[in-house]
Specification:
By secondary structure, this protein is of the alpha/beta class. Helices cover about 65% and strands about 10% of the residues.
């Protein structure tokens, strides 16, 4: 995306606040008019008071009165204009953050899987903050600078055309210097934002995995990796700040030379009678005002490079294609049976590396399907495809004989309940967590769902029962209790299809029994897909899908598969051996 397109998008975002824009523009114009008119009054005051004994006090008093009025109006404008700019900018950034946050929750899971959490956090926080700082500087100084340059150009032309041409001829020198430095600093600011995202991601990962790091004594390794990232970030930051900070002194040096040259030529013209002292004072004031916006704009340009680099990352995220979720037929939960069929399904996470090839099976409505196989066999991928976190490349998945791609995505997911081994709870009350997907539920309905999941007893033992606020659920609840809450959340939804990961390795025996009872009750009259780990679950399944390398290598009941003495039989022998060793 080009700089021009980025700037146009930023301007369109800001121009949505039309009232603030009008206030800011009017205030800026008032400031510029005041800045242009004040030197004229100063020059007039000098000319009526320059000769000894010939001071025109009447004219001087009138001029001083006008100066006071101009200063008051300019001061007022300087007070309200920044407020309007700030309100316009921060409200625009608020809307942009909200758009980005909403965008993240609409993006395909496949895209999010390819991103780092730290980078996404950096875009939503640091990048938007740096962008707002840059925008404030640009609109506080750029508009007034441009108006000042145009106004001063006109006023200098009226005073002395020859000296005005000299100013215009020499001024581009500072612009050339500023442009060269700005191009270099932009690349460095862009690298700085990328490294900041990588650093944020690394910090987030290391904090989340602190237990594992300390267990493996990996503190020194983590520190060295962070030190390397931090050093790179500091390097790009220092380079970017150095190049951007040289713009202002370089342009000021060039402009000081121009000012000195004009003062010398102006004095020579006074001696020849071509200018008065007051006119030279006005002209030099204008010359200073003419070059000052270039100094400000050069500073803005360096800041703008960092803002554009951040805006580019934000707009890249906003422009990512979304999956269509609203078009399609709605599902009638009253008539839905829940039969699932995979027809010649082929899928790959990476092009040319198929994980699933020509997969076919039928799960009758209300049946229990156990999915077994070694790690990487494709068990979780089936779950992802059923939830439409990913779409198949070939073939189709049918729900009651209808391809799931023809259903409204929200409507489809309302009919699917999922409980994973790694449960997720939000910061909020127990009630809020159970009713997360159905906020309209009453307390009685939430309690009923908790009782069905065997979670009511331990909930009532918490300090505030269902109103207990969960901030750090890992410390307040055990893994088994968290899973029971996740099961209660599914009971509250009453879906027709279940996707369950019944792993209970980190749960004590008593809680494991409660979880299994909750699972059994949850699966009644529902089509259930279970990533099975327990022998009892596998044996009671209506259909067992044995997967290996993305293929269903065997399918049938437990007794049928054992009689075949194939891949499934070998897995059971390994399971029995491990069970004996644990004894």
């Amino acid at each position: 995306m080009t700089h021009t397109k980025i700037m146009l998008r930023l301007v369109s975002l800001l121009l949505r606040r039309k009232w603030d824009v009008c206030i800011a523009v009017v205030g800026t114009i008032v400031q510029v008019i005041g800045a242009l008119y004040l030197p004229i009054l100063i020059g007039q005051a000098i000319d009526v008071a320059i000769d000894e004994g010939k001071v025109n006090f009447v004219s001087l008093s009138t001029i001083l009165g006008r100066m006071l009025i101009v200063i008051l109006f300019a001061a007022l404008a300087q007070w309200w204009t920044p407020r309007a700019y700030s309100r316009m900018t921060y409200e625009a950034m608020r809307d942009l953050r909200q758009s980005l946050f909403a965008k993240i929750h609409r993006l395909p899971i496949g895209f999010l899987d390819a991103q780092t959490v730290g980078d996404l956090l950096s875009r939503l926080t640091t990048d938007t903050e740096q962008l707002s700082d840059g925008i404030l500087m640009v609109f506080n100084q750029l508009l007034s600078g441009i108006l000042m340059i145009v106004g001063v150009f006109i006023m200098m032309a009226r005073l002395d055309g020859a000296m005005m041409l000299l100013v215009i001829t020499l001024t581009p020198l500072s612009l050339i210097v500023a442009r060269f430095i700005a191009q270099k600093s932009y690349q460095l600011f862009k690298q700085q934002t990328l490294m900041r995202g990588a650093q944020t991601q690394f910090i987030e990962e290391s904090v989340n995995q602190q237990t594992v790091i300390q267990l493996l004594n990996g503190q020194s390794t983590i520190f060295k990796q962070f030190q390397q990232l931090n050093t790179q970030y500091v390097h790009y930051s220092q380079q970017a700040i150095f190049y951007s900070s040289t713009v202002n002194p370089m342009t000021r040096f060039v402009n000081a030379l121009i000012y000195a040259l004009l003062a010398g030529i102006g004095a020579w013209r006074i001696v020849r009678g071509a200018l008065s002292v007051g006119e030279l004072t006005v002209f030099l004031n204008y010359a200073n005002q003419y070059t000052k916006p270039f100094n400000d704009i050069s500073s803005v340009l360096s800041e703008l490079q960092g803002a554009i680099a951040c805006a580019e990352r934000l707009f890249e995220l906003l422009d990512v294609s979304e999956r269509e979720t609203t078009r399609g037929r709605s599902i009638d939960s009253e008539t839905l049976q829940g039969q699932i069929e995979f027809q010649s399904v082929t899928f790959s996470y990476h092009q040319g590396q198929n994980l699933i090839n020509d997969l076919n099976f039928i799960a009758p409505a209300g049946s229990r399907i156990a999915i077994v196989g070694p790690t990487g066999a494709g068990k979780s991928t089936l779950i992802n495809l059923l939830m439409r976190f990913y779409d198949v490349q070939k073939g189709a998945i049918l729900l009651d004989g209808v391809p799931i791609t023809t259903y409204d995505l929200t409507s489809l997911r309302e009919q699917i309940g999922m409980v994973l081994q790694d449960t997720w709870l939000v910061s909020g009350s127990i009630h809020d967590n159970i009713a997360f997907a159905a906020p309209h539920l009453t307390r009685e309905q939430v309690i009923h769902a908790a009782k069905m999941a065997h979670a009511d007893t331990f909930i009532r033992q918490l300090p505030q029962g269902y109103d207990t606020h969960l901030i750090d659920a890992d410390n307040l609840l055990s893994q088994g209790q968290r899973q029971l809450l996740a099961i209660a959340r599914v009971f509250a939804l009453k879906p027709k299809i279940l996707l369950l990961d019944e792993a209970t390795a980190s749960i004590d025996t008593r809680t494991e029994l409660l979880v299994q009872q909750a699972f059994e009750q949850l699966m009644v009259e529902r089509t259930s897909f279970i990533i099975a780990h327990r022998l009892s679950t596998i044996q009671s399944a209506d259909l067992i899908l044995v997967m290996d390398k993305g293929q269903i290598v065997e399918q049938g009941t437990h007794d049928t598969l054992m009689a075949q003495q194939g891949f499934y039989w070998q897995m059971q022998q390994t399971l029995n051996i491990n069970h004996d060793l644990q004894k």
